[in-house]
Design a protein that fits this description.
It contains twelve helices and nine strands. It has a five-stranded mixed β-sheet with strand order 4-5-3-8-9, with helices on both faces. The protein has a two-stranded parallel sheet with strand order 1-2. A two-stranded antiparallel ribbon has the order 6-7. It folds into two domains: 68 residues, no CATH class; 157 residues, Reverse transcriptase/Diguanylate cyclase domain (Alpha-Beta Plaits, 2-Layer Sandwich), CATH 3.30.70.270. By secondary structure, the protein is α/β, with parallel strands linked by helices. Helices cover 49% and strands 14% of the residues.
């Protein structure tokens, strides 16, 4: 367990302009206003040390509980405080300055968490977030039975942009293409930059047939773009998660990565996937002429209401 310590800075030191010694103040038993003000500037550490319940819990060899419910309050009436003490292990009264600092730190932590999940170049989600969200969707699929699909997209001729136009132009291409692709996906889909010119697309509650349709439209959109006379295409590897199997997160991710490699090997600008879509399409054979005539005959014989 990590205990953060928060301190408030004291007033700035004054510049000494007179070398004369100050007069001695008369010592009394009463605290001055300055001393009272300093006493209010308590750190979290001091507050915890004063509370026996928390101190015993933190002390090595103390109670073996794995968690402790602690409520931080500010200017709470005594009656309300007693009610809270019945439900919590500790109720601690904090000064306004300490509460304000805790709120500021929490706001900074949220910003840091956002940065840790965002790709610095494109502003899209990064690989870390992608893996986290992939785990969420796999768990949702196991619970609901609805499928989910994963696609990994790689630009085939991206090196040509870097070599002929420079790396700064390559960065601009990735940034703009990332935003354009995101706008062409559904609001429920997740687009992330995995690294380099590879992007991951997570499609919740989507079967392989629909996912391939989304990938084809995205691939056609990329093919129609000529980036300063550079022809760009995309190879896409896809996989559908089957909740009946015991495939782990990294194994599922690697399935799409293997299909991407296969799409590249087959000549680029391809979509490769693992699944049963071929059998589904083969099963949907066209209606024969004899079957069509029989259906029309049944329709004519059906009485009108």
């Amino acid at each position: 367990m990590q205990i953060s310590r928060f301190y408030k800075r004291g007033p700035p030191r004054r510049k000494v302009t007179n070398s004369r010694m100050p007069k001695k103040q008369k010592v009394t038993g009463k605290k001055t206003a300055a001393v009272k003000k300093i006493d209010k500037r308590q750190s979290i550490e001091k507050i915890i040390k004063k509370n026996k319940v928390i101190s015993d819990w933190l002390r090595e060899g103390g109670p073996g509980r794995g968690e402790l419910l602690m409520i931080l309050t500010e200017k709470l009436p005594r009656a309300d405080r007693k009610k809270l003490e019945r439900t919590a292990d500790a109720v601690i009264e904090l000064g306004a300055d300490l509460v304000r600092r805790i709120i500021e730190i929490e706001r900074e932590n949220r910003q840091l968490r956002s940065l840790s999940l965002t790709d610095e170049l494109t502003g899209l989600y990064n690989k870390r977030f992608f893996k986290m969200q992939l785990g969420v969707e796999m768990a949702r699929t196991k619970r609901s039975g609805q499928p989910c699909c994963l696609a990994i997209l790689d630009f085939d001729n991206f090196k040509e942009i870097n070599d002929s136009l420079g790396h700064s132009e390559g960065d601009r291409f990735l940034t703009e293409m990332g935003l354009l692709m995101r706008d062409r996906l559904r609001p429920t889909d997740f687009l992330c930059r995995l690294g380099g010119d590879e992007f991951g697309i997570l499609m919740p509650a989507t079967g392989l047939v629909d996912a391939i349709g989304i990938a084809r439209r995205l691939q056609q959109f990329i093919t129609d773009i000529h980036w300063k006379k550079c022809i760009i295409t995309a190879s896409i590897g896809m996989a559908e998660f089957d909740p009946a199997t015991k495939v782990a997160l990294d194994e599922f991710f690697n399935l799409a990565d293997i299909e991407l490699y296969r799409a590249k090997k087959d000549g680029k600008n391809k979509i490769s996937y693992t699944g049963v879509i071929d059998r589904r399409i083969a099963a949907a054979e066209p209606v024969s002429l004899q079957e069509r005539e029989l259906l029309l005959k049944v329709k004519d014989e059906t009485p009108q209401r």
